Structures are given as structure tokens and as C-alpha cells.
Amino acid sequence: MDTQRPLSISCNIMKEVLSSAVEAELAGLFHNGKEACPMRITAGEMGHPQPPTPIVTNNSTAVGIANDDVKQKR
């Protein structure tokens, strides 16, 4: 495991009412992406351009929806 990379952890309570585990996972992924953007921009401005940031989840349905491989029923 690469131990030379910065790590950020945040814990929040979602303000929205989420009706499924998939929606909760997608909301968490979105939150993590929003948290990563300012850190990536700051590192780039300091002369440390960043490769794409991996965002990982263990929910295969959320991965499918995020990658546009699965259609969500409404």
C-alpha cells in the first residue's frame, strides 16, 4: 500500500432523506468528490499536479449508476 499520499476523512449526517442504500452510497460518493476538489486544486497550484482521484465504494449498484452502466428505476 502506498503510504506517501495524503488522506482525508470526514463524517457528516446527510440532510436529505435517502430511500435506499444505493442512494446513500451515491450521496456519500458525491460528498467525497466535493471534498476532494479543493484539495486537488490547492495541490496543483502549489506545483503538485494530481492524477485522477480514485473514489471507491463496495456497492456494485452504486458503481453501475455512477458509471452510467445501470439505469435507476423511478
What this model shows, in words?
- With 74 residues, this protein is mostly helical.
- Helices cover 43% and strands 0% of the residues.
- The chain is built from two helices and no strands.
Helix-strand string: HH
Fraction of residues in helix: 40-55%
Largest sheet features: none
SS summary, helix count: 2
Low-confidence stretches: none
Distance between the termini: 40 Å
Strand portion: under 5%
Shape: elongated
Using only CA atoms, what is the Rg? 15 Å
Judged by helices, strands and strand pairing, the structural class is mainly alpha
**What's the pLDDT, averaged over the residues?**
83
Total beta strands = 0
Break the fold down into its secondary structure elements and pairings.
Layout lengths: L20 H25 L14 H7 L8
Concise synopsis of the structure shown:
The protein is mostly helical and 74 residues long. The chain has helices at 21-45, 60-66. The protein has two helices and no strands.
What are the main properties of this structure?
mainly alpha; 2 helices
